[in-house]
Every structure is written in structure tokens, then in C-alpha cells.
Amino acid sequence: MASKFLMQHPQFKLLITNLAFTAWLLAVAILLQQLATDHPVQWDMTQNGNNSLSDSTVNVLAQMPGKIKLTMFINENQGDMQQATRDFVATYQRYKPDIRLTFIDPEKQPEQARKANIRLNGEMLVDYGGRRERLSQLNEQAFTGLLLRMMRTRNQLVRYLDTHGEPSLEGNREHDLGKFGRQLRQNGFRLESMNLAQTPKIPIDTSILILTQPQINLFPGEIEKLLHYVAGGGNLLWLVDFGPLHGLERMAENLDILLTPGIVIDPAAEEMNLPATWALGANYPPHVITQNFNLTTTFPLARSIDWEESDAWHRIPLAEVAPRGWLSHNIPEDKPYFNSTQDVPGPITIALTLQRNINDREQRIAIVGSSLFLANAYSGNGGNLDLGVSMVNWLGHEEIFISPRLRPVKDDTVTLSKTDLGIINGSLLVALPMLLISVGAVLWWRNLRHAQK
User: Fold this and answer.
1) Which of 20-29, 153-162, 206-215 has maximum average pLDDT?
2) Which of 38, 201, 216, 230 has the highest count of CB atoms within 10 angstroms of its CB?
3) Mapping DSSP to helix (H, G, I), strand (E, B) and coil, where does residue 442 land?
4) Domain coordinates of the chain in residue numbers?
5) CATH number of this structure's domain 55-149, picked from the four choices 3.30.450.20, 3.40.1160.10, 3.40.30.10, 1.10.10.10
6) Count of CB atoms situated within 10 Å of the CB of 32
7) CB atoms near residue 416 (< 10 Å)
8) What pTM was computed for the model?
9) Cα 441 to chain center, whole Å?
10) Neighbours of 15 (CB within 10 A)
11) Distance of CA 233 to the CA centre of its chain
12) Spatial CB neighbours of 148, under 8 Å, sequence gap ≥ 6
């Protein structure tokens, strides 16, 4: 009778219901935990993607056989910085589990710090493939860039001319290519300027020569050295601007290239509130350089790159622009319009690659009808730097490194006033707990009254 009475008592029924619900909830939680362990899925909701890696970094890690050893020299009392480092390295370990991280306190182990020539607290040593590099700034761009440099087994030297008023790959003026040069260095290339008047010939250790628009005429002897370099199978990136070639006409003739006078007018740029003299690159012909490349590029004051048919080179257009535009004979002073007697309707090829087999190896040349697309003032637009670096990787026969540029580091600093901090603290520490307690009390009271009826 007592058990029958308990079974019919409302509070006992409520207890049984709560216990059954609790057991069901625990079973579901255990099942979900097992599923999460067997099939982990992650979403990175942070603005900067702090908890995930870019596709470029994942691709780099997939191509790195062998262990990576990380040794950070940091004081033990800086636990927050150590934990931040563990969290950062953990994002890499998801894709490459054989990354090992060790902390050494330079105050407790000064001899190890001295042997490693540690100068800064928080400095990290990276060991891979018998090579060692130092890292003092911990973010994806710096760390993956360092891994890229360590991956390169070939120490490729990129030379460029800058003695005739050409844009410099190490300059900071708007028309210089300094940002492009720094990006090449970050990707493991060495850069060196060259004075053709002071060297008998372009050195044999030149992996790639970058040729930009001179502002004064080259001497005939300098032209001969350039032609000799190309005839011998040298790889070349030639950035050709609108205007006089100052002696490089012979280079165009040697490569069977036709540089039609005029600049590209692109109505699509105007529709994006950009100058009509900027050609937009969005659709690219099939090429290793542009494989999986889906970024828009901008080419200010671009000129047409055409060619004469011959069997000497295998040519592939790299960028075609302005399908609704045209090649204007002159730079328009007012609103551009199509002159049917002088202008050439689009689409227009403004970038071209050339290949041939010579001296038992493949020679590669890329020609782009605008150096401004890699100038400091414009290289940050769309995928300009990505395309430039990919071209150099292709010219250096290192297609393995052709991928989008590493995700840039964003400033995620948040500055809050005392009032803002007070509101946040009051909301999280007082208001929210009181709200949850109140809701819980109301629900408990309602359930109790329902059980007593």
C-alpha cells in the first residue's frame, strides 16, 4: 500500500520524471562527447581567424615531411604567454601532429640560452630538416613564412636593375616595388640589385631577372648583356609600362613580342568606382600560375602584350582584361570614349608567359603590361601581390609554393573606457547571474505548484 501511495503521490511522480530526464540528458551528453571525439568539427568565429589556419598554411604543412622542433625561451612566471603559445602551436598541430614545443626558462637555464644566443625573452628557435631559424613574432604570417623559407632547398637569387630610374624592389616610394620585394624575401628568395655597366655579364647564379621600365636609355652594351642572358636560357620577369622602352625594343623583337601603343580602358573598373584606366583581372586563362586563383587583380595604365607567331616559344596568355573595354591610343584627359578609327576593342591580353627547352632545361619568361600593379601604391589591391609572387615561384620552377598569400595580421586590439568595463563587469558578474537565478526560481516554483495540484 505504501509503495502504491508513493507512486500516486504528485511529488514522487515529479521526482521520477526528473530522474528519468537527467538520465536521458546524461546519455545524450555521453553520446555527443563520443561523436565529437571520433568526428571532430571546428568553427572559427573570431574576426582574425585566430583559431584556424589559412588554406595556404595548411598546404605548406601538408608538404613538410619530418618533425618540426620548437624551443621557446621564456620565463616561467609568464604563464599567460606560454599558454597563448601552446594555443597557437595547437592550431598547427591539428594538421601536423609531429610539431614538438618545449619551453626553457633562460633565468634557470642561462647556459642553454647563452649557447642558443638568445637575446629576447619569448624568442623561439625553429629546427627543421637540419636547419635552424629564429622567430620573435608569433603569428601565422611570420611563422608560416619562416616554414616556407626552411622548406626551400634551393637558395634562389633574384636580381633586378635599378640604375636607370627603374622602380626599386627595396624602395618605399609609391611607384617602387618594395612591398613586392619584401614579400619575395618572406617567401625565401634573395634579392640583389645589379648595375649592368659594372659587370661583364649577368652572373650565372641569377635564378630570375626582374626587368622594369627604365626612365633613361640603356647603353647598347647593357642591352647586349640582357639579350645574352635570355639567349642563354635565363628566366625573366619583364614588367612593361606604357611609354618609351628606352632601348628595350630589341628585347621585344628578340622575343617576338608586339607592344601596341596605348593603354587599356575598362568600363568594369568605372562600375567599381575605380579609374577607367585600371584594368580589372577576374577571369584568367588556364595556367599553373593561376590555378585555383580566384582573386581580382588591378592593372593601372596597362598596355597590350601581343606576339608574332613562331615556333621558337610556347606562349600562354596569363591575363585577359576589358572584354567590354578597349585599347585607347592615348591616356584620356576627360571621360574616355571608344574611337573606332584608332582604338582596339577588347578583350586584351596584358600578361603572357613564354617557355622553351634550351641547354637541357626549361626556360621561363613572364611579361606583364604594367609594373604599377606591383607598385607600393597599388600592390595591396585584390590579389596583386599573390599573382606577382606566384609568377616568381613559377619562374623559379617551384610550383609547389604557388598558393594564395598568407593571411595578413589584423589589429584586433580593443580599447575600453572605465565606464565600458564597469558595464561589462556589472552585466556578466551581477545582472546575468541574477537573471539566471530568477528564471530558475520561477521555474522551480511553477513546477512545485503544478505538482501539488
Assistant:
1) 206-215
2) 230
3) helix
4) 55-149, 155-401
5) 3.40.30.10
6) 10
7) 10
8) 0.69
9) 53
10) 13
11) 30
12) 60, 186, 187, 188, 401
